[in-house]
Amino acid sequence: MLPATLSLFLAALPTGQTPDFAREVRPILAEHCYACHGPDGAARKGGLRLDDPEGIDRIREGDRLSSRIDSPHPDEVMPPPETKNPLSDEEKATLRAWVTAGAPTARHWAFVAPTRPTHAGGLSRIDELVRARLEGTGLAPAEEAEPAVLLRRLHLDLVGLPPSPEEVDLFVEAHRSAPDQAVEEVTDSLLASPAFGEHWARPWLDLARYADSNGYQADQLRPSWAFRDWVIRSINANQPFDEFTIDQLAGDLLPDPSLDQRIATGFHRAAPCNVEAGVHPEENRTLQVMDRVNTTSTVWLGLTMECAQCHDHKYDPFTTREYYELYAYFNRTPLEVELPSGTTDVSHDFVGPYMDLPLGEGLAAERARLVERREDLEQAREQRIRSGLQPWTVRAREALTGAPLWQVLTPTSFDTGGGGETRLLEDGSTLLTGAVPDRAVYTIEIQLGDRPLSMVRLEALTHEELPGRGPGRGDPERRNFVLNEVEVLIDGQTVGLGEPMASFEQSGWPASGAVDGDLDTGWAIAPRFGESHELSLALEEPKHGSRLTIVLHQNYGQGRVIGRLRVSGSNASPDLRGIGDTERELILGQTAPVESDGDPLEAAFARVDGEVRELDGELAEVRGALDRIRPDRTLVMREEASPRTTHVLERGHYLSPGEPVEPGTPAALHAPGSEAPANRLGLARWIVDPANPLTARVVVNRWWAELFGSGLVETAEDFGLQSTPPSHPELLDWLALELVESGWDRKHLLRSIVTSATYRQDSRIDGAGLALDPKNRLLARGPRVRLSAETLRDQALAASGLLSSERFGPPVMPYQPPGVWRAVGRGAPTWNEARDEQRYRRGIYVVWRRAAPYPSFVTFDAPDRASCTVSRSRTNTPLQALALLNDPVQLEAALALADRSLSDEPGDPLRHIFRRVLVRDPEQSELELLAELREDRLADYRREPARADALIEGVRGVFEPTCADAPLLAACFHVAHVVLNLDEAVTKE
Amino acid sequence: MSRPPELSRRDLLHSAAGLGLAPLLGARSGTHHTPRAKRVIYLHMVGAPSHLDLFEPKPELTKRDGQLCPEEFFAGKQLAFIRERPNLLGTPTADRRYAFTRCGESGAPISNLLPNLQRMADRLAFVRTLHTDHFNHAPAQLYQLTGFERFGRPSLGAWVNHGLGTSNPDLPGFVVLITGQILGAGNSAWGAGFLPSDLQGVEFRSQGEPVLFLENPAGMSRGERTATVETIASLNESRRQRVGHPSIDARSFQYRLAHRMQDAVPELVDLGSEPEDVLELYGARPGKSSFANHCLMARRLVERGVRFVQLFDQGWDHHSGVFGNLERKAKQVDRPIAALLMDLERRGLLEETLVVWATEFGRTPMGQGTDGNGKRSAIGRDHHKEAFTIWLAGGGVNAGHSVGETDELGYGIGLDPVHVHDLNATILHLLGIDHERLTYRYQGRHFRLTDVHGRVVPGLLA
Questions:
Q1: Can you tell me the distance from the alpha carbon of B215 to that of B197, in angstroms, rounded to the nearest whole number?
Q2: Is A855 close to B212, i.e. CB distance below 8 A?
Q3: How far apart (Å, rounded) are the C-alpha atoms in residues B356 and B312?
Q4: How far apart are CA A712 and CA A727, in angstroms?
Q5: Is B139 in Cβ contact with A216 (below 8 Å)?
Q6: CA pair distance A430, A565, nearest whole angstrom
Q7: Which of B14, B15, B136, B385 to mutate to test the interface with A (most CBs of A within 10 A)?
Q8: Residue of A714, A766, A876 to mutate for B, most B C-beta atoms under 10 A
Q9: How confident is the prediction for chain A on average, in pLDDT?
Q10: How far is B449 from chain A (nearest CA, A)?
Q11: What digits encode the pLDDT tens for the residues A362-420?
Q12: Which of A234, A268, B225, B433 has fewest C-beta within 10 Å?
């Protein structure tokens, strides 16, 4: 059956006239014949080609066409029955009439450059062409929409947000005296708003298949939001569309590219990437290159080049060879996944080229502050060493001239805490042998002499009899021990211990953990196994006594206990602890003052001097903070220095290379300039060459569709021979030429459209419209289209006053029901709901994860962005009703809207609510319905105020209402909620 | 408050034409021949269970267990994980738990790991030689379920929904039930691709709300919600009278339907209303998230006219510990699947319900991982696309038969290969759809689920 609109076109055609080849005949040939008699040489039957004039000559002679399409014989009739694609009677009639008229042909309209239609003057050209098309159809143009409705339309179309009531009043007033001027002024101010780019970036990001994740198995997040921000900024700055194109396809290849031009190349890094185990990196790269070719061709040429990936195109004049010639432009990029080095894991890392972004203002200032602090600290440290080292060396020399610094203390008893044996060795150390305990508490008793004790040293030593030489006992591989706590007692009294010092500390297991009273922390030594280690403990003050008791708690488990222990004591000052044999010799042999850097004495002093240690602690913190200030990154294109040879890939498979090809553009389209480089830059310039018959048409058609709900060419994703012919071919050409000749000026073109009478028409439909043109192909009325997923969110937030004005930056995570993100795999991200203003950011900033996009967006027809999307569906489902009724963001917004209408403004809150969302003034009957709802609810809540509190608590999210009258607020919430759910609210009228 | 009159179904069909409401109200393209099945329950085991140890006994493989695999199994082949020429790994059939039993009149071999399914053997039609083109999970899942290894194409359920519509306008035509985590292909595995997006699968969740945003916020009563919906409908009606667009009625219809779903869905997912013996049959426990619950839910869904129910069960990717893991997973699914078949049968539903048990690929007859330390429990099997087993049951299926034979080691196909496209063509055929005629025009092309391939497998048809 023919669609209603097509029959309308046919009806408009005077009977008996020759069918128009381009509009009526070729679609039939393409649909029913080209599969076997079209551009694909391999599939061609009988050498007959009906997509070129010579083939048509063959059927013209003697009218061989009619006899075949009308043949009663299954073997003879065309198309053959097995194709299951028979001609309808109407189609046969059209073909016969065409052949009878001599089978005139014409090139496919979309492959011929547009021409400017003549202009009679008076009306805008858009209106003139639209009205010319309406003549004789029985439809007449509608009046202009009521001003408030028109203003809402302009706002939603240009910035994706509703106007404020004040803006409405101003506009309605201005419109009364000078409607054209009022529309032009508001259009200009909206086009200049920063919200314009946020709204118009969305369809471009659908095309760019921009998302914040890789796609496929684990679907990890990846940073490319700088590209999203670039798109918004570029659209706001009204960057000419040809430059916008060149920057994205080849910004990196421009001479001395700017930061923005390199960020723009993120367009083609948005291709999904599979890091699943078993992926072949080259296969992944091949698929990405194909994605780039196909996306480029859909976005800029409106062509389905991917059909030519495995065989010549069935309908359009493109060969497989030509496909790979386009492919060759993109075939110089590096691999984007690789096996992680140094592991046997077979999952891949995502490694494709990144670029560092400049630090934001805040971070740059923070870094400058930290650098200054680091320099101050380094200076203070140097000063302290300069002043402290000399006196310390003198004191050390005095102390060392007498007895040695440490004296070995031989235990009188060694209790292993259960099991095993001990053996006292000649050097005074104790070796533990026998059964290895899971965990242990050692208790060592020592007889003290008459000198006071100021320090205790514990040495964990290696020994041949220990597994793997120790010093731990548990495991020949991991010879660690964990000393969770040390207790020191003199004559049974616990003594306080100062800061401990260790020869080496395992990360996360510092020596301080052994004296902090916490049995979960402790000192350990991985990975320095097979070496001796020591821990020295300073008593808070030197102490006399006869009996020293040392208790070592080692409760990590798995035998992580010390295998050979030696205890020493000292009565020297604790700041001499750092002195080992080297330092000792130096100090004793030293006569000259110490000066040079890197001196072992200086290092020893730094280890023990309280002041230096404090400075070092702070330095470590500052250096860590500096390390953590990393610039954000973004994905960019990079050309490999050495070119790859591109081959035709048989059946599109990366392991089946056929004949080699060079970069080149399809012969059916315009020729590239003679000086164009054979790289992406040359391709980009070829695409925006004014001689290109496609790009400008394809682009303006999509913009038209954004405003009117459907393009002049309905198949916005395909301008090839199978496309639907344009409803207004001359208008399409005019718009395309206007775009190019204005210097690819997007704002100029949008301004021309939205200030036209055609756009400004009332969108209501009457009987004639319903009968003759339900889809509004002929534009006898204004557009009426359901809002996009993002705009629905933004509208609710804006009307309620919650919308955050923050722009740009990393993606945000507002409320999302639990359990939506539960994909599998390494590095799969988690959802962290923002509880602050970030939850009220515009939809464009919500994180886009391909395996599980934001559910309310999916419900309202958002794609998963794993592939290029030209136009979203516009469905109407019960799930959409549920999302608008119950999604917490909608409830929060409804409450805030009610609150705002009660607290901010004088007058009737119901009217305020209505105007904030629907913009126009309510009818009396509408107000009555809303008032009835409010009164019903209010009566309930006055009777049971606790229920009002419960409702507010149930819907408020993190919003804090200002209205103290809970029953009234709750009753008005119901009204706001209803208004946000009206068909009119979710629709641009 | 005045209530507008309920719209008649005919009014709606009239006003909804071309406005996206059609799939809820009836068939889109209709059938091409008399259907043998009217609905589908598709059980997808995510990760690829080892068919060799469940349905495909290979005594020769068991005999040669531990021997180096033939050169041609490895040289020049792409394997996901195995990097060195591996040893063959046989099913340890000497252990009774892993032995096979020839079941029913058909004598189909089924592992003792699946004792309940063994009793249903005569209801099953096996494909022993299914093969696919992809050996990584996400691309293979996409290939199996959308006919294309990359993103962007409609899923099988969406195609069926497109072709047949739903028979219960109060419920979605395509429901998805997921046990465990979401599979690698993500939403695309039940997506609508370029078809209108209302044809995509709707996930019924077992944790939290069964359908996203189904529940009213805390503090809002059912009566209040009714008043909200009716006020919305009244205001919509007043707007429609002014601006004339019939799509406004469709919106109000959806709001009322959504409101009905708020009652219907909780009732539907409340397994507590099932008699004890039914719960026992499935091993289902109300309120829990389990594959057993989902099988029972699937029956309740098809009973209420849902066209396509897709179950995903995560956790079958046994690169290591294949025998232990298989035993554990088999225990989770054996009873519920057998119960589902039995329950459908005794209710007379099996005759018109097609049940598919499938997965994205098979597993290698070669072992993966070392058992050099004598740790046999650690050995697994890698991904295998050359041949694997799935089965069908129910409407129009040639129960008790099997299609295809693999070679003696279960590596390649000996007889009658069945490609993924062939399986999908057959599934559509059983539903009365000619896979070559179920098309959708997009980007100037008539797209099909089976691309330009696929043939109906006669051996699977009763």
A1: 23
A2: yes
A3: 12
A4: 5
A5: yes
A6: 5
A7: B136
A8: A876
A9: 89
A10: 16
A11: 888 999 999 999 999 999 999 998 898 888 888 887 777 766 778 899 999 999 987 78
A12: B225
In this prediction, residue A62 has a pLDDT band, given cuts at 50, 70 and 90, of low
Residue of chain A whose alpha carbon sits nearest to that of B216: A886
* Cα-Cα-Cα-Cα dihedral sign, residues A571, A577, A583, A587: negative
**Element containing residue B338 per DSSP (H, E):** helix B322-346
Q: Report in angstroms the alpha-carbon separations of A416 from A38, A162, A522, A551, A894.
A: 91, 78, 19, 10, 70
Scored b (16 or more CB within 10 A) or e, A825-858 reads beebbebeeeeeebbbbbbbbbbbbbbbbbbbbb
3-state class of A710 per DSSP?
coil
β-pairing, B39-46 vs B353-358, is: parallel
Give how far A595 is from chain B: nearest CA, Å.
59
Our CA angle for A635, A640, A642, nearest 5°, is 180
Identify the closest residue of chain A to B227 by CA–CA distance: A933
* Residue type, position A217, single letter: Q
Sign of CA dihedral A366, A371, A375, A377: positive
Phi, psi of B287 (to 5 degrees): 90, -10
CB pair distance less than 8 Å for B252 and A983: yes
B225 interfacial to chain A (CB closer than 8 Å)? yes
Interface contacts A/B by beta carbons within 8 Å: 267
SS3 assignment, position A971: helix
Minimal CA–CA distance to A334: which of A264, A297, A294, A286?
Answer: A286
- Please answer whether residues A731 and A126 qualify as being in contact, where contact means their C-beta atoms are separated by less than 8 angstroms: yes
Cα–Cα distances in angstroms (integers) from residue B456 to residues A690, B130, B152, B460, in the given order: 50, 13, 25, 9
Q: From B18, B228, B256, select the one nearest A765 (Cα to Cα).
A: B18
Q: Contact, B361 vs B48, CB < 8 A?
A: yes
Whether residues B1 and A298 touch (CB distance < 8 A) is answered with no
A102 contact partners, CB below 8 Å, separation of at least 6: A60
Q: Which of A276, A316, A978 sits opposite B228 (nearest CB)?
A: A978
Mutate to test the interface with A, among B177, B182, B433, B447 (most CBs of A within 10 A): B182
* pTM, rounded to two decimals: 0.79
The ipTM of this complex is 0.79
The reply to whether B244 touches chain A by the CB within 8 Å rule is yes
What residues contact residue A870 under an 8 Å CB cut-off, 6+ apart? A206, A207, A298, A299, A702, A716, A717
Q: What is the DSSP string of A33-52?
A: THHHHSS-TTT-STT--TTS
Q: Along chain B (462 residues), what's the average pLDDT of each consecutive run of 10 residues?
A: 34 36 47 93 96 96 93 84 87 94 95 97 97 90 92 92 85 90 84 85 86 95 96 96 92 92 91 95 91 96 95 92 93 97 97 97 89 63 95 96 95 95 97 92 84 93 93
How many Cα atoms occupy the beta-carbon half-sphere of A853 within 13 Å? 27
R_g over Cα of chain B = 24
Residues in chain A: 989
Checking A370-376 for CB contacts under 8 A at 24+ apart, the result is: A370/A622, A370/A625, A370/A626, A370/A629, A371/A626, A373/A622, A374/A619, A374/A622, A374/A623, A374/A626
* pLDDT tens digit sequence for A916-962: 999 999 999 999 999 999 999 999 999 999 999 999 999 999 999 99
For tokens 């001689």, what's the residue?
Answer: A691
Inter-residue contact B260 to A917 (CB < 8 Å): no
pLDDT (tens digit per residue) in A741-767: 999 999 999 999 999 999 999 999 998
Q: How far apart are CA B126 and CA B357, in angstroms?
A: 10
Report how far apart the first and last C-alpha atoms of chain B are (Å, whole number): 58
* Burial state string for A81-114 with b = 16 or more CB within 10 A and e = fewer than 16: eeeebebeeebbebbbebbeeebebeebbbbeeb
Shortest Cα distance from A245 to chain B (angstroms)? 22
